[in-house]
């Protein structure tokens, strides 16, 4: 009996380490110590007689045997999870830790409140939430799901469900416009002080909509960069330049007149909002519960997912 139990020892540590290529990151996911994870993997290698990882001071990579073994382990875990799901009672409630990535300002304002409601409603549901504008690799970094704003790349490892749309407006503070003048044409943006989020490409563009309803990419001149929408808003209100911002973030300021909309004939740029998660034969009930919650929130009247 002991031999049968030992066959599964170390597999969780191996799979977690393989996904994030780090004993330290795997330890955070499994709530173990890095040395504990490393020892579990070493004992597993000794038991099966295979070297699963190439180890250097800088890098941890799978051996060819490790890649084959990982595929087999993931398949077995999926099948076990699916079997367990079929036995879940109807009164089951979400439980376990869910790792979630959300955009900074949007996540804090429009996702976090619902996550906190879930956390208070389900005492056994634990949250690990990261606020970032960075495009994360969910599989490598160990995330269960993420809310992502913008066009998605074609990634066969991910599943996506659209939640809504983010509409954009170009605006600036009256103090900036008084000092430098308004903007009459999109081409002028190539010579003005523009504020952007984290730069994702060398040539930066804003999405505009023509009078004919067609979308176009307009190149701009970048002066200030901020990794967070709230910081961008603060810079714009301080008169540091021109911004293209989501309407949900600047609506109150536009109403008060502390920001002025520009190039209204070219307004209407849109960006899709999705919830994404790693593709698997089976979706854990705790992850499904969060996805279902996001869909419910997005579908509510007046939701910021569909302004």
Task: Annotate the secondary structure layout.
Layout: H1 2-6, H2 11-20, H3 23-30, H4 34-48, E1 53-55, E2 60-62, H5 64-86, E3 96-102, H6 104-121, E4 125-131, H7 138-141, E5 145-149, E6 158-172, H8 174-180, E7 194-196, E8 205-209, E9 215-219, E10 222-225, H9 229-237, E11 242-246, H10 247-256, E12 260-262, E13 270-278, H11 285-299
Parallel strand pairs: 3-4, 3-5, 7-10, 7-11
Antiparallel strand pairs: 1-2, 5-13, 6-11, 6-12, 6-13, 8-9
Summarize this, please?
The protein is an alpha/beta fold. 40% of the residues lie in helices and 24% in strands. Strands 3, 4, 5, 6, 7, 10, 11, 12 and 13 form a 9-stranded mixed β-sheet that branches. The chain has a two-stranded antiparallel ribbon with strand order 1-2. A two-stranded antiparallel sheet has the order 8-9.
């Amino acid at each position: 009996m002991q031999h049968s139990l030992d066959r599964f020892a170390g597999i969780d540590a191996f799979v977690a380490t393989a996904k994030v290529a780090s004993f330290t990151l795997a330890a955070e996911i499994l709530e173990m110590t890095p040395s504990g994870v490393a020892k579990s993997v070493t004992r597993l290698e000794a038991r099966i007689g295979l070297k699963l990882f190439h180890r250097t001071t800088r890098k941890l990579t799978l051996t060819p045997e490790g890649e084959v073994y990982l595929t087999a382990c993931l398949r077995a875990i999926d099948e076990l999870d699916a079997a367990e799901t079929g036995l879940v009672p109807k009164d089951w409630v979400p439980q376990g830790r869910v790792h979630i990535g959300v955009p900074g300002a949007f996540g804090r304002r429009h996702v976090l409140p619902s996550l906190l409601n879930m956390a208070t409603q389900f005492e056994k549901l634990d949250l690990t939430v990261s606020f970032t504008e960075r495009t994360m690799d969910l599989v490598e970094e160990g995330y269960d799901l993420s809310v992502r704003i913008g066009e998605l790349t074609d990634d066969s490892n991910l599943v996506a469900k659209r939640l809504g749309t983010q509409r954009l407006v170009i605006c600036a503070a009256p103090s900036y416009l008084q000092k430098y003048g308004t903007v009459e044409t999109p081409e002028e943006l190539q010579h003005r002080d523009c504020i952007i989020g984290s730069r994702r490409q060398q040539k930066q563009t804003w999405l505009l909509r023509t009078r004919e309803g067609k979308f176009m990419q307009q190149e701009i001149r970048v002066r200030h960069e901020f990794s967070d929408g709230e910081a961008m808003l603060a810079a714009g209100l301080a008169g540091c330049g021109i911004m293209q911002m989501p309407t949900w973030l600047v609506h109150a300021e536009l109403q008060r007149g502390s920001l002025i909309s520009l190039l209204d004939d070219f307004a209407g740029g849109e960006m899709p909002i999705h919830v994404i998660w790693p593709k698997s034969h089976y979706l854990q009930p705790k992850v499904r519960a969060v996805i279902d919650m996001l869909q419910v929130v997005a579908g509510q009247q007046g939701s910021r997912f569909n302004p």
